[in-house]
Amino acid sequence: MARIDLRNLAHAYGPNPREPRAYALKPLNHTWEDGGAYALLGPSGCGKTTLLNIISGLITPSQGQVLFDGVDVTAMPTEARNIAQVFQFPVIYDTMTVYDNLAFPLRNRRVPAPAVDARVREIAAMLEMTDVLRKRARGLTADAKQKISLGRGLVRSDVAAILFDEPLTVIDPLLKWQLRSQLKQLHKKSGYTMVYVTHDQTEALTFADKVVVMFDGEVVQMGTPAELFERPAHTFVGYFIGSPGMNVLAAEVDGTVATVDGREIRLPRAYGKSTPDRKVELGIRPEFVRVARGQGLPVTIRKVEDVGSYKIARLALGQREIAAVAPEGTEFPADDVGAVFDPAHLNVYVDGHLVDGTPVRGA
Amino acid sequence: MDRPTNQKAWFLVLPVLLLVAFSAVIPLMTVVNYSVQDTFGNNEFFWAGTAWFEEILHSQRFHEALARNLIFSAIILAIQIPLGIVVALSMPRKGIGVSICLVLMALPLLIPWNVVGTIWQVFGRVDIGLLGHTLEAIGIDYNYVRDPLDAWFTIILMDVWHWTSLVALLCYAGLVSIPEAYYQAARIDGASRWAVFRYIQLPKMNRVLLIAVLLRFMDSFMIYTEPFVVTGGGPGNSTTFLSIDLVKMAVGQFDLGPAAAMSIVYFLVVLLFSWIFYTVMTNFERGGQ
Ligand SMILES: Nc1ncnc2c1ncn2[C@@H]1O[C@H](COP(=O)(O)OP(=O)(O)OP(=O)(O)O)[C@@H](O)[C@H]1O
Ligand SMILES: [Mg+2]
Fold first, then answer.
1. Which of A214, A227, A310, B21 has the fewest Cβ atoms nearer than 10 Å?
2. What's residue B289's pLDDT?
3. pTM score, two decimals?
4. Domains and their CATH numbers in chain B
């Protein structure tokens, strides 16, 4: 149990990286609070595994420091760091029994036999593996092997943090759901710092108190699921979280007026004048787009998807598509259709990043 | 459940059966034929029953050669298997070092047997050989022509030089098939270097080790060319292995009957030991479950 600070941390796999693109992990500062349950969310190749491996010491970062409770551990080997990690694909010791597999991390650290036994049985019970403890690990199913892998990560009771690198990928959906809620319970009971990597947003949102979103080697936002939903700090977050994702529209901005496709939209805050060398975009969640007759931006309805509890309208604004979410039973107008954006939830992004405007009185 | 039966399939295996018959079964049967008969030339044969077998099995000459073979194979396995594993473990896993290593290691395997013998025959000579002369110069009494122990030393060293790389290459093939995640997990689990070897590397090498042991056993047990070229079976009979003895008997003395009986016994011994190794090692792999 520890707080983990990452200071000015960056990593490139090749030697002597010149351009920023050579970095698998761009310079970042970040803190994982003691006892937090974090989900690390991001698309494939964005550097999630790299980040975990740096925290656990499997990789030495090209620059920056890793601190456990304020102590610099950057140069410390994995074995000395007191950290547990579960990998994406099951790693089991073929020739050992399930019991010995689970006991392995404890025995290597010279934990006395009775304590090993108690702990192994506890974890086995949690994973529902008590009846196969005496079996060889080799012949088991992929699910069972991954459970053993998971179990080895959980078996040590004194770890600073447990890192999960997409631990449930190869497990079938029902079992996945059960294991996830057990992990969550274990977290409540034990108070370990847990970092859970995934690229599945439901998994992230159900497991974690705080979600950290990575994109292209950068941490683009950390926040509660609600924060990520309401104020995505990066267009990628808006697009990645929520279904359908946030609408992102190229725009020109000057003061409190944004221009999209030659149409003016009032903004709740004032921004500087946009310049052509930077990409300026408006972001609005489909939940905050209202379809109305004769108001807002003129659009046409391409199609309406009925998802059961709500409807998704796919609107065409010139060449662009905008999604709008409306409650079940909404009737959409047949002609003179307009899309109205809720100004309170309009966000402005420059080069992908959210910018805070200055509040204007009376807006 | 009804299984469709189609006897035509036999035609498909026929070519292989014929090939095996001509290359293995028929020659073996000829040997069996010789082993139960006596001949004085002129293609005249007399039934001898099991006489030759009894003679061979009771002959001291056979016992001694068999003992030499067993000791030789035991020494070869005891040196080459661990050494091959150590070499494989210390070979590089990536970079240009890999290709250089592989080529260097494959070199001894590409040299014809009798050339290997000749190389070591010269290498070990006291008058002109690099090894023999050097040993002599630093005051070690070494002469493989006179001293049986030196002869054994030379032959074993030669075989280790010739074949250890085969074991190493086989083990290496097993090692490179281990995913990086296993080593990472072992570090997370705090495993010692020994534990990594014992629980990750050794289990992954098990299959190839079985092949290596079988190949090296059979090959060392049937060794002929190299000791024949280096020592010719001497000094005395000290390096006369079964194969050398067999050739002496069959070609030198033209005792076809006893030689044939000996070949069969020899063959059965190889078969027996190979079977034992196979059984023991596959059981070990399954770990008794
Ligand atoms: N050993 C390596 N050598 C060189 N490049 C690597 C290595 N491992 C990862 N990379 C590169 O670093 C970047 C980040 O990889 P990383 O494995 O951290 O991504 P990830 O977010 O874990 O992706 P995934 O969801 O697919 O597991 C990728 O572009 C990848 O190609
Ligand atoms: Mg990964």
1. B21
2. 41
3. 0.80
4. 23-288 (1.10.3720.10)
